[in-house]
Specification:
Elements: E1 5-9, H1 14-25, E2 29-34, H2 42-51, E3 57-59, H3 65-74, E4 79-82, H4 89-94, H5 96-117, E5 121-127, H6 151-168, E6 174-180, E7 182-184, H7 203-211, E8 218-221, E9 233-234, E10 236-238, H8 239-255, E11 262-268, E12 274-275, H9 276-287, E13 293-296, H10 311-317, H11 325-343
Parallel strand pairs: 1-2, 1-4, 2-3, 4-5, 5-6, 6-11, 7-10, 8-13
Antiparallel strand pairs: 9-12
The chain binds UDP-4-deoxy-4-formamido-beta-L-arabinopyranose.
């Protein structure tokens, strides 16, 4: 039987490219659709080396209806995993219109084209930012959705509501929204990983660039939070565990194929919280390095602590994270070292 084709929008991105690997290893035929506005073409070379074949790729914007329709029809797509979106929290605060236009246009166009072509199964990339500053921890899928603290986070909340309402209207779609916690690490081969543009916003790429000598030191944004060591707590999940959660969600939708319409959401996290200082120590331990850091002011918009209750995904998707924080940090470091070797850049510290 031919491998079912799954369209991975934003498939050249960090989580998208790792999900392409997990899909192929699970017996699917992944096809990438990416406009490369926030990713690089040589990710496809990394995928070729890992998988041993060229992953088909359509260079197109998800919001470009005719291009999306033609790609999905030509490739005989059976299901879609939708990553394509802008995702920088700070940038979204500065450019809200660009974020709403891009992220919501892409989603609306995708759903309309799926309905036109009779493609039913969709996995939507959502985020734990929908929980805001949770009053109770760990957060479950029933935890209150608090007003988004950024336009980026709001595009995830609104995206979930759009999908929920379309299914409630009885449209023939089976949809799962996955609420990611903090994806970190890289494929153990070191051939694909996170490619931050400019100065990294996120903690782990900033740590690996500091260790690589591209940054003078890590600035820890505040150590006066109401947490054991005063630094913020997050649920850091290996990107390969996250990628495999998408396969589990797809298989769950296949089991539900008797249903015309279905919508549900799942937390995808490890269930363990780790503070910024925990991550620094784990990196030093995993990589045998000493990381220069200092304590700076709090970053606006940061919540003190958020981590997942991932029971629902374990019970209903048969998925659980099994890679450790140490493994993720060692994989992230291997990727950074390879990146620096490739680019030969020992760029002066910014
Ligand atoms: C983690 C912790 C920082 C950098 C963001 C998005 C979220 C999701 C994941 C897309 C915080 C601290 C960071 C630094 C630091 N992205 N930190 N110094 O903010 O939890 O989540 O990325 O879906 O939507 O909001 O991740 O890695 O930016 O920060 O001290 O140089 O590390 O204060 O406590 P965050 P992060």
């Amino acid at each position: 039987m031919e491998a079912p084709t799954i369209l991975v929008t934003g498939g050249a991105g960090f989580i998208g490219s790792h999900t392409v690997v997990a899909l192929a290893e699970a017996g699917y035929r992944p096809v990438v659709l990416d406009n490369f506005s926030n990713s690089q073409q040589d990710v496809l070379e990394g995928l070729r080396q890992i998988l041993g074949y060229e992953v088909p790729c359509c260079v197109a914007d998800c919001a470009h209806r005719s291009a999306l329709f033609e790609a999905m029809e030509r490739e005989q797509v059976r299901g879609v995993i939708h990553f394509a979106a802008f995702k920088a929290v700070g940038e979204s605060v500065r450019e809200p219109l660009r974020y709403y236009r891009n992220n919501l246009d892409a989603l609306l166009t995708l759903v309309e084209v799926m309905l036109e072509l009779g493609v039913h199964d969709l996995i939507f990339s959502s985020s734990c930012t929908v929980y805001g500053e949770p009053q109770q921890l760990p957060v479950t899928e029933a935890s209150p959705i608090l007003p988004a603290i950024s336009p980026y986070g709001n595009t995830k909340q609104v995206g979930e509501e759009i999908l929920r309402d379309v299914v409630r209207a009885g449209k023939p779609l089976r949809i799962i929204s996955l609420r990611y916690f903090n994806p970190i690490g890289a494929h153990p081969s070191g051939l694909i990983g996170e490619l931050p543009i400019g100065v990294p916003n996120n903690l782990v790429p900033y740590i690996t660039q500091t260790a690589a000598g591209l940054r003078p030191e890590l600035v820890i944004f505040g150590d006066d939070y109401a947490t054991p060591d005063g630094t913020c707590i997050r649920d850091y999940i290996h990107v390969m565990d996250l990628a495999e959660a998408h396969v589990a969600a797809l298989r769950s939708l296949e089991r539900l194929s008797a249903l015309a319409s279905y919508y549900d959401v799942f937390n995808i996290g490890t269930g363990q919280g780790a503070s910024v200082l925990d991550v620094v120590r784990a990196f030093e331990d995993a990589c045998g390095l000493s990381l220069p850091y200092c304590i700076g002011p709090r970053r606006p918009g940061d919540v003190a602590a958020v981590y997942a209750d991932a029971t629902k995904a374990r019970e209903q998707l048969g998925w659980t994270a099994h890679r450790t924080l140490h493994q993720a940090l060692a994989d992230a470091w291997r990727w950074e070292q390879r990146l620096q070797h490739l680019t030969g850049s020992r760029a002066k510290c910014q």
